Amino acid sequence: MTTTPSNPLANQVCEACHADAPKVSDEELKELMALIPDWVPQVRDNVMMLEREYKFKNYKLAWAFANKVSELAESEFHHPSILLEWGKVTVTWWTHSIGGLHKNDFICAAKSDKLTD
After folding, report:
1. Residue 34 located in a structural domain
2. What is the pLDDT of residue 86?
3. Which of 23, 67, 94, 101 is least surrounded by Cβ atoms within 10 Å, i.e. has the fewest?
């Protein structure tokens, strides 16, 4: 797994986000994606999301990671979709209230990557 140890996003905190908060612009998307190269932007039901699949040696390690992501989500009060499978966890971040991507999603993606260190 490729992580960026000095990723500045991982040191930031999510801000409160409301339905009128701006989605990231195309330019911001390009800049922010460069900071989280293992993540893939996905569009589902016309909603842009960030997704990454993490691989593990077994179910127990995947489960432990999924729990860490859940704890991160609660601490940031920003909640992803987490799919737990044998040896694999897929994490999908997006901002429900704006129906797309906010900087918070990139912050949480970077923080998720740090959980594998």
Report:
1. yes
2. 97
3. 67
Please give the tally of structural domains in the chain. Answer: 1
CATH number at residue 28: 3.30.1360.20
SS3 98: coil
In a domain, residue 17? The reply is: no
Q: Is residue 6 part of a domain?
A: no
Length of the chain (residues): 117
Q: Report yes or no on whether pTM surpasses 0.85.
A: yes
Specify the 3-state DSSP secondary structure of 88.
strand
Residue 2's pLDDT band (cuts 50, 70, 90): very low
* CA distances for 14 relative to 9, 45, 77, 89, angstroms: 10, 25, 8, 22
**Domain assignment present for 8:** no
Taking the C-alpha atoms of residue 9 and residue 114, their distance in angstroms, rounded to an integer, is 11
Q: Indicate the burial class of 8 (C-beta count within 10 angstroms; 0-12, 13-18, 19 or more).
A: exposed
The tokens describing 93, both together, are 């971040």
pLDDT in tens, 37-60: 999 999 999 999 999 999 999 999
